[in-house]
Design goal:
136 residues, mainly alpha, 434 Repressor (Amino-terminal Domain), 2 domains, 8 helices
């Protein structure tokens, strides 16, 4: 059940997690069964979960890790291919680059994007107009 919570926190589908771990969707469903009815997740896959940014200590014990960001930074990350849906090529590229960032860098990126959205929002969706240059 806690594996499902971590998967959901990261915004991963069961299919995306299965692909990242190299197992089938049904295997992930079995790992996520509530009440201890499922199969315990093997240690080598827990290591892969850590690289995805999951809190493995929480998955195992129910106690959240105080150093989750450090673990994610040191473990590295997997590239997870998710269905594109309605995202444009520019959005996909931005999302791919964002996923390669370390947790602290992601926080900075979110702050920058929020600031830019606020500035754009002040113009109610209209792009900012430049002042005309003075002629010499």
């Amino acid at each position: 059940m806690r594996l499902k919570e971590e998967r959901t926190r990261l915004g991963l589908s069961q299919t995306a997690l299965a692909k990242a771990l190299g197992v089938t969707k049904w295997t992930v469903i079995n790992y996520e069964r509530p009440g201890g009815r499922g199969t315990p997740i093997p240690a080598d896959l827990l290591s892969a979960c850590a690289r995805l940014g999951m809190d493995v200590q929480y998955i195992l014990t129910g106690v959240h890790s105080a150093n989750l960001n450090r673990v994610a930074e040191e473990a590295g990350t997997y590239r997870i291919e998710q269905p594109a849906g309605a995202l444009s090529p520019e959005e996909l590229k931005l999302l791919e680059q964002y996923r390669r960032l370390k947790p602290r860098q992601r926080s900075h990126a979110q702050t920058i994007v929020a600031a830019l959205a606020t500035v754009e929002g002040a113009g109610k969706g209209k792009p900012a107009r430049r002042k005309p240059r003075a002629r010499r």
